[in-house]
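ARCHIVE CARD
Drawer: 12
Card no.: 0347
Subject: one protein chain, sequence and derived structure
Cross-reference: see card 0346
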Amino acid sequence: MTNTPRILVTGGAGFIGSHLVRQLVERGETVRVLDRPEAKIDHLPLSQIEFVAADIRDRLAVRQAVQGCRQVYHLAANPQLWTRRRGDFHAVNYLGTVHVLEEAVSAGATRILHTSTESILTRANQKAPIAEDQPITIDDIIGPYCRSKFRAEQHAFRLARQGAPIVIVNPTLPVGPGDWGRSPPTCMMLDFCKGKRSAYLDADLNMIDVRDVAAGMILAMEHGEPGRRYLLGAENWSIRSVFDHLAKLTGLPEPRWRVPYPVALAAAYASEFIAYLVTHQIPAATITGVKLTRRQMHFDASRSLAALGLKPRPIAESIGEAVAWFRAQGWVDGDRPLVCH
């Protein structure tokens, strides 16, 4: 064990977290990762990091993990839009955040980064693109996942107002290779590549390469202003345009029909009902996810990107690399050639 001040990354085995850990290790940092005991970790550079198997709901375990860390990146959360145990979002995303941030402050960390989400920045009937200074209240928030993340972000802001060195980042949807946990945008693209998506919802989203999210986090940790929110986003695409691009890459047919919103919402209610009672698996359509498609999801991260000096790569390239990675893992048919443009 070394006495060199460490950097702690909670959720470091996740999609964004694993890329962040690798970038920090490549910079020569001494990194400690805290993630769930059941988390897949063999994709991490285990010989170059210290791994702590613990749950952020365990405050004592968090207290021990932050000791000796000069910086704390808090990413750990339940990123899905549905959970069978209804209290999980509050316990993990909110109370877990309280544990990490408060214990990091108590341990004397000189810089702390809290990872929020873009989905809490949406409001009903908004027309203008969403920036990092979007005013929001709890009444604007859709669903238990988003509410838990909103409350966590509000706690981070409260601590920052009290003098804690906390910076907040709100990534939009991360895409690219390495998503072992299959986050919602990865599941959407993977289902298309498996031929399971012949229909689409009329909705927009903002995407950013997962590696650019990790780079943006490092820049925010180094140069960000405590108590400020930085929006990490890149390009606005429609769901239809994502599927059209995937069709060109894979040679699969483009989606044939648009699902009306009432039909999609009814299907989401039915899917969640079946998931609760029968499958106990995350449903293909969630109520929160469908309701979010009715919101303005165009984001303008230009001010945050300029402040941090981050220049994200083209999303078309990121999607192509994600598809190639799906094939490398054997998740989709590797016989069909990948078309590169």
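Annotation on reverse: The longest strand covers residues 69-74. The mean pLDDT is 91.
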